[in-house]
Write a structure and sequence with these properties.
binds tryptophan; 371 residues; Tyrosyl-Transfer RNA Synthetase; alpha/beta; globular; Rossmann fold
């Protein structure tokens, strides 16, 4: 099998998630822990049933503590550098579900310095502009304004910097080199940045003035940052944060994740219905056969079909999804038909999202924390 790469800055090749679990020292979300979760939520989000959220670290402890009456906060984030695409929404949708089920406060970090450090052609003005664009998508998810705090690092640094310094003092250059693969040519901002991403995991304890747990729903590539956070937390007197981790939404063209920086691999939340249609028809990698005759005889391959993969993320109706799987696999359903269904499902989702995104423009201030 071809090698794959998963770091916070790069996802390449076909990801072997089992291998990732071993390499990252995380655990699979197994039946036991899902049953334990269901005791509190009454149902499982389809992201869990379909193993889109598939791994965790210390989520079992979060539940155990919750059962003892100890609440937890949620924390996630988004480094602004461009428009939001469908893949970004996945952890946010799940965070909203957790917020509703556990009545948790959500801390939403917008590190507007992160991509500034990592990309040559991006100014702090650019990332700030994208931050406020992206916040519309975040609010559109439907988070409770009374229980959700959003901040930009550059606007809330007065509250964060002290703790970032405490983290920085505990992390050596050789640790960041080993964890992130940094070289001597990396700039100091890139090396320091992970300290800023650690801090919100400690805010629950700082705000509550007593040890308070933090659960971080995010894509699996971000766990590296939190491995560092977990390592230094006890040294600073904070509880170790837990993570609950999802897979990547595949890019339109096969291989790797949906990415803003590669043309025609992503569907953006502001795409028009026509644009979504063109992208799916023209670019979505197909698991269909070369001719209709061959397709009818051998059937399609849903496992490699990007449209089908998108349905597993965005079609809630599990019975319908199963039927589509059967029909495509048996050859009864052709690629064209599968693509039409996908276009309809995505456009219906986006139509609702875009309405909420528009309304979010008046709500920004209800969510923001600033110095
Ligand atoms: N590094 C993340 C990104 O590239 C942004 C981020 C900051 C984040 N804090 C987080 C993501 C916490 C998940 C959880 O988008």
């Amino acid at each position: 099998m071809k090698e794959f790469v998963v770091t916070p800055w790069e996802v390449k090749g076909k990801v072997d998630y089992e291998k990732l679990v071993r390499n990252f020292g995380i655990e699979l979300l197994d039946e036991r822990i899902l049953a334990q979760l269901k005791k509190h939520t009454g149902e499982l989000h389809y992201f869990l049933e379909r193993k889109i959220f598939f791994a965790h670290k210390y989520f079992d402890l979060i539940l155990k503590e919750f059962e003892k009456g100890n609440k937890f906060y949620l924390y996630t984030g988004r480094a602004p550098a461009g428009p939001v695409h469908l893949g970004h929404l996945v952890p946010w949708i799940f965070a909203k579900w957790l917020q509703d089920k556990f009545n948790s406060i959500l801390i939403f970090q917008i590190p507007d310095e992160e991509k500034f450090f990592f990309k040559d052609d991006l100014s702090l003005e650019d990332t700030k502009k994208w931050a406020y664009e992206n916040i519309l998508d975040i609010i559109a998810i439907g988070f409770d304004p009374k229980k959700t705090k959003i901040f930009l690092d550059t606007e809330y640094a007065g509250h964060l910097y002290k703790y970032a310094c405490m983290v920085a003092k505990k992390v050596t250059l050789s640790t960041t080199k080993a964890l992130f693969g940094f070289k001597d040519s990396n700039n100091l901002g890139e090396i320091f940045y992970t300290c800023m991403q650690s801090v919100p995991a400690f805010l629950p304890t700082i705000w509550e003035k007593k040890p308070t747990n933090c659960l971080i729903p995010c894509a699996v590539d971000q766990d590296v940052h939190f491995r560092l956070t977990r390592d230094i937390a006890p040294k600073l007197g904070f509880p170790k944060p837990a993570t609950i981790l999802c897979k990547f939404l595949p890019s339109l063209t096969q291989g790797g994740k949906m990415s803003t920086s590669v043309e025609n691999t992503a569907i953006f939340t502001t795409d028009t219905p026509e644009k979504v249609r063109t992208k799916i028809i023209k670019y979505a990698f197909s698991g269909g056969r070369k001719t209709v005759k061959e397709h009818r005889k051998k059937g399609g391959i849903p496992e490699i079909d990007v449209s089908y993969q998108y349905l597993t993320f965005f079609l809630e109706d599990t019975k319908k999804l199963k039927q589509i799987y059967e029909d495509y696999k048996s050859g009864k359903m052709l690629t064209g038909e599968l693509k039409e269904i996908t276009i309809e499902v995505l456009n219906k989702f986006l139509q609702e999202h875009q309405k909420r995104r528009e309304r979010a423009k008046e709500k920004i201030e209800e969510f923001m924390l600033r110095d």
